[in-house]
Amino acid sequence: MQIANLLGGARPGWRLLTTLSAVILSACSALPTPAPLASPPSAATSSPAAPDPYLAQRQAMVERGIIALGIEDPSVVAAMSAVPRHEFVLQEYLGQAYENHPLPIGLGQTISQPYIVALMSEQASVEPGDKVLEIGTGSGYQAAILAELSDEVFTIEILEALANSAAQRLERLGYTKIHARHGDGYEGWPDEAPFDAILVTAAPDHVPPPLVDQLAIGGVMVIPIGPVGGYQELWRIERLDADQVQATSLGGVRFVPLLRSGELDD
User: Fold this and answer.
1) Domain 14-44+51-260 - what CATH class?
2) pTM for the whole structure
3) Which of 50, 123, 138, 193 has a 20 to 30 A CA-CA distance from 237?
């Protein structure tokens, strides 16, 4: 996309520095696959305290689909190894829970490819003590990964059925550091700002100005930007000071569009 359009809605005075990364993504995230169910999904019913029958599959996913593809941050690798992805997918997709591709979660939404989840988490430079905002809760998987890396996660989902099911799932799995709510993620969560990191898991056609305003100085946002229904570009945006951000392209991706409250069917 044109660099000039990246901060399409930015307030006057912002300065944008851009760099291009050598990282080109060969795989896509969040492909808009039709949902197999009309109602929101529920997670697998196995108890987290029981022996994990998916442990070997998860380890293989991390080794082949995370480490082998260049993810180096040991904290991110540990988080991807710890979070049970099978708890966040539909029952009929349990056999694919640890394959390195997105899966439908209902209502036209998807759980992202594990590699993309790891890449965005690594690029956000999340550390213990950080306060993190996620836009687009979906199944709650990315929020769970972020909770393994930080002290507090705030996550917003515009689809109420998904927001409710994700909140229930995260509570059941014991993620007490995650605060989830239903709302329009474009506006962020101003009452809890500033955030050390912001991850956006759906694609707008420009960076939402409220999210930049809510990013702490020195904080990082990772966000896909691009047209609805097409391929987008994944950007790492660092806020250098009150009026200047630096954007680095991480390559091509494909995400579902970032929905606004006025775009939803009544």
Assistant:
1) alpha beta
2) 0.84
3) 138
